[in-house]
């Protein structure tokens, strides 16, 4: 007897061939949403989640009641505010974002470029802060965006300072090409990572879109561990990597200081503002 | 025969007395986390979610694999980056935040106060943007924070412009008191809402903490509907409500313009930055 399971949701368990659990089905509904799929009809959710229409309907109703999803005037569903509220509790998101915010903003104003603060999640980088220049956005760069590490400045820094096993895992995985300049050769990438470790900065040109240059530096926690990376993306013709490196290094140190309770300025009893 | 169900999670279905569904249990695990409970042990999750330890363990493992939760070095769980990624897809979060960001930042720099951008969710207000003055934070004001409408500037504005049924629902619900100045009398609150509608601005003193004054204005979408509220919180001795109102009104108009595709400046082919 052949049991044909419903299409499996991505649960992060590669190679897991069991039919989805009840929790897996809930997560599959959430997985149906993405940057290209921000608003979905019930049947689109059902199809993308690999669930029958009645199952999708039941789960969507529960998620709607809880606030994980919202329904617009046209009956399409999108991600709800309850998830925004929950995500603000993510320690790697919130504390970092708060410590980095004024410095990222300064960087953005001084350089006119897009500023990203990225952390590693598995073999990818996720932006926990992203400040975009209004006049230019050929590439999505938003909070929550997830990119392969080898194509982003923040990713190159995080990869260079990751444990060797993780580096090998990435170097041995298929490396996606976005432009003719994207480094997808493992040996070349290994050399690039060596350079990042040696100089403490990643400079890369045209890895995702041709006209862009990114400069990125590590952000350390008070124990000296690399916990995030900070980058500025500017148009190639405006790029002054040495100047950007100096600005980024200064910002990174300020963020580390802001993360260190011992180095925080005491709160004045009569706050100066 | 009496069936004793497990403690019910909050699903938004008030009065629902059925035992939790599988989806409800997943959501109960997520509900266990909150501003005062950012990192939880497995047994704390089990207790707070009202689930048996084996059930909590199984669900936590699934949520961990998917990225909704993360585990720290001490074995405590917290909200994971996958939820940050998902929440960035919330249309009422992202689009508004992006349109508002530069204007909220300007307001913060000019006034030195905390700036909030709030939207209504049910009978509460949720901050989709929050910029805090570094020297002062007696009150949490973070992205994702959720407050009763009657005590916040943004909430008063959103309530004043909400449909009458919703206003009655709030006015007839228990109104929490935070300070001796908090308006908790329905008649007084009704008068306050009238005033907000008449003047287009909410000014409130000491509703959450005594020394604070908040000034808030509505933010309209291109169709003229109130979709959010923008506020500045400053110390009472620094408060110049008329000046703050002028600044907020200007910022609110700029945000509305940024939300209107028809009024956006054309993207230059050679971007000026």
Automatic annotation (TrEMBL), chains A, B:
Swiss-Prot/TrEMBL keywords: DNA-binding, Transcription, Transcription regulation
Its ancestry begins with:
Bacteria, Bacillati, Actinomycetota, Actinomycetes, Pseudonocardiales
Statement: the UniProt record of this protein carries the keyword Transcription regulation: yes
What is the name of the protein in this document?
IclR family transcriptional regulator
| Domain HTH iclR-type: start-end pairs | 20-81
Q: Which residues form the IclR-ED domain?
A: 82-261
Supply the InterPro entries for this chain.
Answer: GAF-like_dom_sf, HTH_MetabolicPath_Reg, Tscrpt_reg_IclR_C, Tscrpt_reg_IclR_N, WH-like_DNA-bd_sf, WH_DNA-bd_sf
Q: Keyword Transcription regulation, does the record have it? A: yes
Q: Where is this region: Disordered?
A: 1-21
- Which Pfam families does the entry mention? HTH_IclR, IclR_C
């Amino acid at each position: 007897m052949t049991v044909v399971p419903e299409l499996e949701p991505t649960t992060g368990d590669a190679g897991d061939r069991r039919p989805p659990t009840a929790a897996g089905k809930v997560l599959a509904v959430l997985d149906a949403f993405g940057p290209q799929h921000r608003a979905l009809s019930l049947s689109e959710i059902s199809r993308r989640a690999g669930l029958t229409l009645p199952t999708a309907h039941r789960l969507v109703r529960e998620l709607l009641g809880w606030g994980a999803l919202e329904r617009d005037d046209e009956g399409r569903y999108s991600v709800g505010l309850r998830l925004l509220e929950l995500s603000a509790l993510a320690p790697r998101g919130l504390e970092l974002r708060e410590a980095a915010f004024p410095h990222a903003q300064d960087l953005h104003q001084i350089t006119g470029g897009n500023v990203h603060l990225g952390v590693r999640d598995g073999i990818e980088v996720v932006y926990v802060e992203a400040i975009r220049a209004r006049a230019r956005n050929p590439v999505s760069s938003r909070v929550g965006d997830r990119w392969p590490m080898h194509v982003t400045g923040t990713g190159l820094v995080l990869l260079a300072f990751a444990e060797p096993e993780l580096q090998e895992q990435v170097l041995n995985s298929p490396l996606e090409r976005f432009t003719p300049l994207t480094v997808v050769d493992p040996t070349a990438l290994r050399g690039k990572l060596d350079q990042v470790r040696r100089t403490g900065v990643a400079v890369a040109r045209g890895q995702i879109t041709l006209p862009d240059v990114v400069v990125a530096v590590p952000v350390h926690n008070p124990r000296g561990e690399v916990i995030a990376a900070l980058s500025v993306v500017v148009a190639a013709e405006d790029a002054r990597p040495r100047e950007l490196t100096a600005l980024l290094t200064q910002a990174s140190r300020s963020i580390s200081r802001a993360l260190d309770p011992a180095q925080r300025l005491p709160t004045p009893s009569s706050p100066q503002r």
